[in-house]
Amino acid sequence: MAATRQSRARSSMIAGGGAEVAARSQEDSPGGADFAPSALGTRQHWDAVYERGLNNFQEYGDRGEIWFGEESINRLTRWMQRQKIPLDASVLDIGTGNGVFLVELAKLGFSNITGIDYSPPAIRLSGSVLEKEGLSNIKLKVEDFLNLPTELSGFHVCIDRGTFDAISLNPDNAAEKRKQYVKSLSRVLKVKGFFLITSCNWTKEELLNEFSEGLELFEELPTPKFSFGGRSGSSVAALVFQKTRDFSLDKPS
Ligand SMILES: C[S@@+](CC[C@H](N)C(=O)[O-])C[C@H]1O[C@@H](n2cnc3c(N)ncnc32)[C@H](O)[C@@H]1O
């Protein structure tokens, strides 16, 4: 059974083992909603998280949180292998955090990988993690996905693991920022390219609504299911979209 608003646990932004529930500020139809603003939607929050992460990594070699768990990474890399995405395909990890996904891609042989994050300590941490793994061929940049330089474009595959979730919690006009996200995605992804998103704040139906323009659902990746009170659902949605045409470029936001 498909996840429903009632059955779905919105265990938003699971950090440090704790779950914070993202409350909707209004009951809504898909796409009409905003989450209650949260510090998790701000750069200050992520700067503090990754400053701590960097200290932990330097002191104890601890890379920190694997968002959505290890299996969520395998789910994406398995899909890329099944789909026979060429090893030289250009891949962009949007909001790369500690860079753990980049490490797995590089270990599989992907050779044209870029990680961006708007948090400078995140990029310093991912740089240190990659260096320790002996992986030198990965591009890392401090970039705000909502305000990109023009040279970042033409990617075959874009990955989002929790970044759209974080942006949706921004206290300052999150609805506008979500629209800007879609525009940026349109800019960086090639036509026929794939966008893989893993989210714990949005249901499949809501993601389909958010990413309806110029993208079509290619595949839903199976995520762990839970049952409660006779209903079942997933706490995480993992979808693959394919870009069908350029979109959102000429419209005012
Ligand atoms: C939930 S964490 C996930 C990190 C990483 N994707 C992972 O799987 O470990 C969300 C990440 O998105 C980044 N982020 C949030 N808004 C961003 C933006 N506008 N541009 C770039 N990165 C952003 C945060 O700094 C943080 O690293």
UniProtKB/TrEMBL annotation:
Signal peptide: none annotated. GO terms for cellular component: cytoplasm; nucleus. Residues 1-39 are annotated as: Disordered. It is an enzyme of class 2 (transferase). Belongs to the class I-like SAM-binding methyltransferase superfamily. EFM4 family. Residues 89-217 form the Methyltransferase domain. HAMAP family: Methyltr_EFM4 (MF_03188). It catalyses: L-lysyl-[protein] + 3 S-adenosyl-L-methionine = N(6),N(6),N(6)-trimethyl-L-lysyl-[protein] + 3 S-adenosyl-L-homocysteine + 3 H(+). This is EEF1A lysine methyltransferase 2. It comes from Phyllostomus discolor (pale spear-nosed bat). Protein-lysine methyltransferase that selectively catalyzes the trimethylation of EEF1A at 'Lys-318'. It comes from the Eukaryota. InterPro entries: Efm4/METTL10, Methyltranfer_dom, SAM-dependent_MTases_sf. The gene is EEF1AKMT2. The keyword tRNA-binding does not apply. It is found in: Cytoplasm; Nucleus. GO terms for molecular function: protein-lysine N-methyltransferase activity. Transmembrane segments: none annotated.
